[in-house]
Amino acid sequence: MRIRVSHLTTYRYEASPKSVIQTLRLTPRNHAGQYVVYWRIDVSADCRLAQQEDAFGNISHAFTADGPLNELKVFVEGEVETRDTQGLVAGAVERFPPSLFLRETPLTLADDAILSFAQEIRAAHADTLSALHAMTVRLNGDITYDTNPTGSNTTAAEAFSLRRGVCQDLTHIFIAACRSLAIPARYVGGHFHRSDGVTSQEAGHAWAEAFVPDLGWVAFDPTNGISATEAHVRVAIGLDYLGAAPVRGTRTGGGQETLTVAVNVDQAMRQSQN
User: Does residue 78 sit in the same domain as residue 127?
Assistant: First the structure.
């Protein structure tokens, strides 16, 4: 499948900041399941984008924009060729051993309720892969998708208690449950092409990858109750959302800030060969 992605982030400031510093993790990499046909980033301010790789091997860009600024826009667009690998992740940049992804973070700390949930799933399934598939399906059924009650700082335990949240929350719960069972798991930020014809989205997508002995990393999307397919565009990984956040930064001055995000994910038409 060839997937076209556009992603517009707009900041509006009550008063002009003196400067804005941003780090972007918005650019996908090639691996066995995807090939980046083209990709570009535009920033509305007059600044230089500096490309580098972060600790996890994600492609990141950083820039500093000096005021006066009433508005700042970051626009990304590109096309990615994907294929279904049954969730298996191969050929990706791997900077660390899987054991690093057993490390707990404040967003993925398992409380007693998540521990009990994970242990119940594990007890019912003899092998790791079956347990992970069961966990994916259970979370999809147990957690109601709801954009209202949670935010970027909501922990896995809080979202699990609410039984509501967005893809970030379901992914954090999945990761917390996996790590409590000594299964390495990591956060994936990216995009998802919906099969229902809806292309406009308010944010990117998130899912998880868990390490399965004799298989390697396998991607699970609890929000949709499936393993990752050709509909998923993998952009960045981290221990949690903060390590894979598409846009993070700071500013000097500026008063109140308003942030809006508009994402469009659609299937692109392949050009015919003459």
Answer: no
Tell me: do 108 and 229 sit in the same domain.
yes
Co-location of 75 and 124 in the same domain: no
Q: Is 210 left (phi over 0), alpha (psi -120 to 50) or beta?
A: beta
How confident is the prediction along the chain (274 residues), in pLDDT tens digits per residue?
999 999 999 999 988 898 999 999 999 999 999 999 999 999 999 899 999 999 999 999 999 999 888 899 999 999 999 999 999 999 999 999 999 999 999 999 999 999 999 999 999 998 999 999 999 999 999 999 999 999 989 999 999 999 999 999 999 999 999 999 999 999 999 999 999 989 999 899 999 999 999 999 999 999 999 999 999 999 999 999 999 999 998 988 877 889 999 999 999 876 534 3
Cα Rg of the chain, angstroms? 19
Give burial (CB, 10 Å; 0-12/13-18/19+) of 259.
Answer: exposed
Tell me the pTM.
0.94
Q: CATH no. for residue 167?
A: 3.10.620.30
Region of 214 on the Ramachandran plot (φ > 0 left; ψ -120 to 50 alpha; else beta):
left
Residues 122, 50: one domain?
A: no
| CB environment 114-128: b (16+ within 10 A), e (fewer) | beebbeebbeeeeeb
In this structure, is residue 93 part of a structural domain? no
Range of the domain at 66: 2-82+246-267
